[in-house]
Amino acid sequence: MSCDALALASPEYVRRLSPYVPGKPIEELAREHGLAEGDIVKLASNENPRGPSPRVREAIAAAAAGVTRYPDGNGFALKTALADRFGLGIDQIVLGNGSNDILELATQAFLRPGDHAVYSQHAFAVYPLATQARGATGIAVPARELGHDLAAMRAAITQRARVVFMANPNNPTGTWLAAAVIREFIASVPSDVLVVLDEAYNEYLEPAQQANSAEWIDEHPNLLVSRTFSKAYGLAGLRVGYGLAHPAVAEMLNRVRQPFNVNSIAQAAAIAALADAAYVEESARLNRSGLEQLAEGLAALGVGFVPSHGNFLLVHVGDGAAVYEQLLRRGVIVRPVANYGLPEHLRVTVGLAVENRRFLDALRAVLGR
Ligand SMILES: Cc1ncc(COP(=O)(O)O)c(C=O)c1O
User: Fold this and answer.
1) In this predicted model, what pLDDT tens digit does every residue of 151-176 receive, in sequence order?
2) What is the number of other CB atoms lying within 10 angstroms of the CB of residue 289?
3) Is 46 close to ligand 1, i.e. is its CB under 6 Å away?
4) Which of 18, 206, 305, 308 is most buried (most C-beta within 10 Å)?
């Protein structure tokens, strides 16, 4: 079968999809620019810069002996640990291959071709992608000061809407809304529309800012909270995330889930990571000091940025594409965000102090300041 014939066989909405563009891998930049990998700083994918917790390394080593077996497809031990953590039933937890998987499962379980999914302008790129992959229509609601305009989002929820996505804090803007405001919004959404509250960066918030969103599920059975081990827990490469939901919602996601979507090493590592509160606290502390370092450095350069509640900063550089390329030549990988409607910005992940310094020095050189 020719390529053309293959293309014709796939639905029009799949052919129109532009694939997700991840941050440039270190190895790729090294190959392309003849740089040594050790000289490259990657601040492009909102990863944890610290390396894994020793307890996670031990759990991974111990789990290695079991890789000839399929993983527990129900993830019993990890779900039990999460159920304890959140005071939920084990039937209220869905495990995902990263929280990205949870977002995909939500669209698979709840969107039909022609349905609407509502999200904000400048929202996480996976929402429009997953929506379009189901033949549904994404409604991107204009942002207010780069953040979610909840009144406008509420107004966009028409009869055809089946899912609403909301990241708090939001990527790539770093904007954040207080728990009371989010809860009021959820209460205003019709009960037959699924609200996906994506809290991938929750652990970076000050403890007092963190919403007890799992406690809202009883009152709002149409709420799906998604969380991840990729960020503050430092397991991005293992791909583990989870959804918290009413048992009936969790059941629908589990019906469309691959039977072994979270591998055995990832499950063991996530259990160890969940138990290592000190690692998460230290990640959040390091992030706060990194954000301060970047903010001070950018202010000294006269470069604007959006105050962030995540582990990244949206920086206003002017010509985003040109500055991105020139930073690459200096061995610094950040993330262009023109695909988010932000061509004048770059998103910079908070790294170790020495990595943040490298970025600031490279930016100073590129901007000639
Ligand atoms: C807002 C948001 N949600 C979800 C994810 C998915 O992360 P993961 O699949 O690694 O859990 C990301 C990743 O950057 C994100 O920024």
Assistant:
1) 999 999 999 999 999 999 999 999 99
2) 12
3) yes
4) 308
